[in-house]
Amino acid sequence: MPVQTIDLFCGVGGLTRGLLDAGLNVVAGFDIDPTCQFTYEFNNHVDYHLRNIREVMGEELNEIYDENVTKILVGCAPCQPFSQMRFKYGGANQNDEKYDLLLEFGRLIEEIHPTVISMENVPQIRETAVFNRFLEVLNRIGYHIDSKVIFCPDYGIPQTRRRFVLVGSLLGDIHIIPPTHNSLNIHVRDFIDDLPALAAGQVDEADPLHRSASLTEINLRRIRASVPGGTWKDWPEELRCKCHKKESGQTYGSVYGRMTWEQIGPTITTQFYSYGTGRYGHPEQDRALSLREGALLQTFPRNYNFIDPNRPFVFRDVARHIGNAVPVRLGEVIGLSIRAHLINNGVEV
C-alpha cells in the first residue's frame, strides 16, 4: 500500500522538503500565508492549499489522499505562543489566536485517523493544557507515541536549537531515530564559509538571496569592535548601549554578538538578519547574517528559491519565512523515523 503525506502549517516547506529527502511522498501542504506559496510549490513541486486550518475538514483531506494508501498527517503548529520569550506571560498567551491551533490538528486527526502522525514545536509546549488535550486525542484513538526533545546539533543542524518532536502510529511502536552526529563536530564554517564576502547592505550578483541588512554608523563601529564569541563588554565604553549600562542589561551577552566559525550557531529566528537581536554577527565580516546564510543554517538546500518573481521583494518577509521554518534536516529526521517504522511493519514506501 503506497504512502501519502499531507503537511499542515507547511510555510515555505522546511518540513516537506525534509520528508521528501527522507523518501516520503508528500501530496499537499496547507497554510494561511499567501506569501509562502511560490517558495513552497517551486522548490517541492507539491500543491499548496491556501487555507485557514480552522476551516479545513477531514473530508477535504481525504479527497486529496488517494484510495487505499497509508495516510501520514504532519502538523507543526506555530510555536510563537509557546516560545521561551513569550512563555513567561503564562495564561495571557492563551489569548493568542494561534494558541489552540494544535487542537485543530488534533481535530483533523480524529476525523481521518491517519496511520502515522507527527508534530514539532518548542519544548515548552509540553507544559501547556493545549498539549495535554492533544495527547488525550491521540490516546483516545489508540496511537503508539514516541517523543523527545531534540538537540539539533545531534542530528547535524548547526544551531543551539532544541525542539520537541512527537511521532505516533496506529500500527504499533514507533521510535525517533537516535542521534546521527557528534555535536562537537558541527561547525558554522561547514555551512556558510564558502559564500562570497559581502558588506553590510550588499547583494551578491550571483545569488539575490545572499544579501545582508544595512548597518547604522554606530552599529558598524560596534561590529568592528566585536570579537567572535565575545560580547558587547569587549567594546569601548562609548559604543555601549544605554540598556547595557543598566543592571538588567548585564545578562544579554549574545545581543550584538559575533558568531564563531568553529562552534555551533545560534537558533535562527525571524530576526536573524538583525545584528542587534542576538549572536547574528558574521564570524569575520562586518555585518549580520545574510538571508542565504540564515537559510543554510536552517539546512535548506543552497538552491532553494525564496524570492517570488510576482511579488515585490520584502526583506523581512523572507527572513520570517526562513526563521519560522522547520529546519530541513529535522524534517528529514522525522521522515526517516517514519519511514523506518513503516518498513518494519511491512508497508511499501
Order of helices and strands: EHEHEHEHHEHEEHEEHHHH
The CATH architecture of the largest domain can be named as: 3-Layer(aba) Sandwich
When the domains are counted, the total is 2
Query: Which sequence of strands runs across the widest sheet?
Result: 3-2-1-4-5-7-6
Give the overall shape: elongated
Report the biggest beta sheet as strand number plus sense, adding barrel if it closes. 7 strands, mixed
Quick recap of the structure?
With 349 residues, the protein is of the alpha/beta class. 28% of the residues lie in helices and 15% in strands.
Question: Which key features would you list for this structure?
Answer:
seven-stranded mixed β-sheet, alpha/beta, elongated, two-stranded antiparallel ribbon, 2 domains
Task: Please characterize this protein's 3D structure.
- With 349 residues, the chain is an alpha/beta fold.
- The chain folds into two domains: 3-182 and 325-344, Vaccinia Virus protein VP39 (Rossmann fold, 3-Layer(aba) Sandwich), CATH 3.40.50.150; 196-289, no CATH class.
- The protein is 28% helix and 15% strand.
- It is built from eleven helices and nine strands.
- It has helices spanning 14-21, 37-44, 58-64, 84-87, 101-112, 129-141, 189-192, 217-224, 291-297, 315-324, 328-344; strands spanning 3-8, 26-31, 47-50, 70-75, 116-121, 144-151, 162-169, 203-204, 207-211.
- Strands 3-2-1-4-5-7-6 form a seven-stranded mixed β-sheet, with helices on both faces.
- α2 (37-44) links the parallel β2 and β3 (47-50).
- It is elongated.
- The mean pLDDT is 92.
